[in-house]
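So, can you check?
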Amino acid sequence: MEIPATVVSPGCKECCERCVGSLPWASLIATILLYMGVALFCGCGHEALSGTVTILQNYFEVIRAPGDVLDVFTIIDILKYIIYGLAAGFFVFGVLLLVEGFFTTGAIRDLYGEFKITACGRCLTAFLMVLAYLFFLVWLGVTAFTSLPVFMYYNVWSMCKNATSVEGANLCLDLRQFGAVTISEERKVCMGSEKFLNMCDSNELDLTFHLFVCALAGAGAAVIAMVRTNIL
């Protein structure tokens, strides 16, 4: 009499190994890095722009232009809306990146069939590669643009740190040099004046400068994540 073979159900260890092996770890790490970089850029960038508004109003006495005139405050508001759009767009992109990783991982193909998963995965991978390159080019521009306020704030921050060593020098911060106001409008703060000393002693300048630095670091992290995505 033939003894039927017993069916051995997989144990907890085998199930865990199969579950862990089916995860797209490379895409998951790239998505987490992308989310962290975009969140750091958007959060710090938004607060840095708000700090810039405070500095312009309190120490340079710049006021909002009446009506729909395109002044520096309107440009800052537009940049804030751009940050909101970038945050929403990259959230969707991160979700698509994870879906692409799940569809193209080898364990998922073995589990659900080679043809369907491979065909869907190839189409999704091709679409995401094009999208990733476009986002990569856009984000390179964003990173380059973010370095500009970091450079400007670094100059101002250096002037405040070296104010005692260059005491008596006739150095001024003129907003017309940075394109923040029109040529006919004179808004400047000179070293040794009360406004300059108050600005250097305040927390707004130091905090805004470091927030822009963090935003630049977040943009760099997002660029690294998209490079990682394109390599994969």
